Amino acid sequence: MKYSAELEETARLLSGANRGILAADESTGTIGKRLQSIKVENTETNRRDYRELLFATPGLGEYISGAIL
Questions:
Q1: Which pTM was predicted?
Q2: What is the DSSP secondary-structure string of 2-33?
């Protein structure tokens, strides 16, 4: 494969020690359940605010090496 070495290096970097990949591609229903559990209405604005809060968390990069959007 032409890019196999680059792909392997990228995978190695993403799976570094004590870090993982954040799956943030939740459906509207799934994120709605998260919001409901904290008594927040499942609206587009609240879903956006939740994701913004998540990705703006100070030090997130110490624990997350990538995200699925």
A1: 0.72
A2: TTHHHHHHHHHHHT-TT-EEEE----HHHHHH
